[in-house]
Write a structure and sequence with these properties.
single chain; mainly alpha; 7 helices; Spore_V_AC; membrane; Stage V sporulation protein AC
Length: about 160
């Protein structure tokens, strides 16, 4: 009989149990995951650079082009999340889709889409910042503290 089917915890000690767990756990494909994350994350960043070049070629300054690029990337990621495509891409790309600004957009929209059946206010609206909210609060507070430190030092 297979070890998994004949599992009786009362007959196993801790070492035997740990050995069984290691045998049945899938082995991570670390190199494959790192390469895919690098390629997908790099593709997102390269696309962002192309957008920045496009906007600067249309007369925007570098800072304004960066803002426009961020807005487009956030919109595209949120749109793809709403269609259910971003999560499918993320299955293969892993951290390559989480680290860039597109991951922020996905973290905002995904919880909202999960609760859309509860309506626009109590579903989508209430869940929109479930994950991103603490990130925003921490970022704003950290920026404020850094600004205060900079101001005090400059006195």
């Amino acid at each position: 009989m297979d070890k998994i089917h004949s599992f009786d915890p009362s007959e196993m000690n801790q070492k035997e149990y740990q050995k069984l767990v290691q045998e049945v756990n899938p082995k991570p494909t670390l190199l494959k995951n790192v390469v895919l994350a690098f390629l997908f994350g790099g593709a997102i960043c390269a696309g962002g650079q192309l957008l920045t070049d496009f906007f600067t070629g249309r007369g925007l300054g570098l800072q304004d082009a960066g803002l426009a690029t961020s807005a487009v990337l956030v919109f595209v990621a949120a749109f793809l999340t709403g269609l259910g495509l971003y999560d499918e891409i993320a299955k293969y790309a892993g951290a390559g889709t989480i680290v860039p600004i597109t991951g922020f957009a996905n973290s905002m929209v995904a919880p909202a889409m999960e609760f859309r059946s509860e309506g626009m206010v109590f579903g989508v609206g209430a869940r929109l910042f479930t994950i991103a909210g603490p990130v925003l609060v921490f970022g704003i507070v950290t920026a404020w503290v850094a600004g205060m430190i900079s101001y005090i030092i400059s006195l």
